[in-house]
Amino acid sequence: MKLKQLEGLLGSLEQFSHPKIELEQYPTGHHIASRMLFSAENSFGDIGDKVVADFGCGCGTLGLAAALLGAEHVIGVDIDVESLAVASANAEDLEVDMEFVQCDVRNFGWRGQIIDTVVMNPPFGTRRKGADMDFLSVALKVASQAVYSLHKTSTRDYVKRTVLRDYNASSAEVICELRYDVPKLYKFHKKKEVDIAVDLWRFVPK
Amino acid sequence: MKLLTHNMLSSNIKGVTNGFPLKIEAEKIIERPVEINPVFLKNMFAKLEWKPLVEASRTMGFSELPEDVPDMSVLDSDEFLQKFHHALLEIHLEEGALVCPETGRKFPVQKGIPNMMLHEDEV
Ligand SMILES: C[S@@+](CC[C@H](N)C(=O)[O-])C[C@H]1O[C@@H](n2cnc3c(N)ncnc32)[C@H](O)[C@@H]1O
Q: Which of the listed residues A127, A152, B27, B82 has the most CB atoms within 10 Å of its CB?
């Protein structure tokens, strides 16, 4: 599938209609989401024929992109059942298969080495401090091949140090720096928060 | 929920030492055909827990998988791959529950989505 085609399909997806502030529910725009998954597949071969998990999948954008790029089995995990219902309808519209589990990522129970790749856009931790790092810690335990994630550029040094020292990562690489326009969903968003610098990371677990 | 997902989900309740495999209570089962991918199946075969898959598929009304872990050589048989593929990826638990093997706690499955949320005192 071509990048443009992927971006177009992701642009047609339904997104949060009543975003929940405390869960940091804002979608990954189709521009960023398509490039994130496209490079995971075309530069690293981490998607096609793989088992992929989407942590905090929301309305499913990242996981569905993985499915469109040929992932064999995709599991979306989110704490919010309303978002999962939207994600499930999105999967049906695209006529792709995606599995869903309602769960707090921090308490995700799994066994074995089945999941190859985790893709995620975790809460940045502006509402609950450390939320982004909690996601990373679990993702690096679950994935056997790679973890793709978005984090604020302002946390770059901290993220790198922490994953290498404490989270079982053997490598941590910023693939690119992006402008993320968090849509002005919430009244309390000051203007400066609307457009923030975000890193796309690729982590490899030990 | 497909049985491949079942084969990796585990109960994570505080104090539970072996939350796998979750027992299936099936109320509604659906089947959806998907294209077979032999390379993927061969790769999965090595990572799966065989007995839980056999048991789960039997609960879901499909009893054609061999009881004991088959030898790798079965992966050359198209007939075996078909059955393995069907059990792993085509049978869905649509409504029912997953039951923690240690505590008996039920995790409901609705519209194909298992609810694995823990209560406060289970974390
Ligand atoms: C920034 S949004 C990203 C949504 C979606 N992945 C996307 O890319 O459009 C973060 C998501 O994480 C979910 N979430 C927040 N805290 C969570 C937790 N502890 N466990 C699971 N999901 C959580 C929210 O419901 C929300 O859908």
A: A152
- Which residue has 């088959």 as its token pair? B70
Chain A interface disruption, residue of B5, B7, B8, B9, most A CBs within 10 A: B8
Would you say residue B104 lies in a domain?
yes
Please indicate, yes or no, if residue B122 is contained in any of the structural domains.
Answer: no
pLDDT digits (tens, 9 = 90+) for A56-88: 999 999 999 999 999 999 999 999 999 999 999
Q: Residues B75-96: pLDDT tens digits?
A: 999 999 999 999 999 999 999 9
Element containing residue A162 per DSSP (H, E): helix A156-166
Residue A127: pLDDT band with limits 50, 70, 90: confident
Sign of CA dihedral B73, B76, B77, B80: positive
A102 CA to middle of ligand 1, Å?
11
Indicate whether residue A56 lines ligand 1 (CB < 6 A): yes
- CA–CA gap between residue A143 and residue A120 (Å, rounded): 12
**What six digits make up the tokens of A61?**
């954008």
Range of B45's domain? 3-117
Nearest CA in chain B to A79: B117
Q: How many domains does chain B have?
A: 1
Give yes or no for residue A133 CB within 6 A of ligand 1.
no
- Decide whether any atom of ligand 1 lies within 6 Å of the A105 Cβ: yes
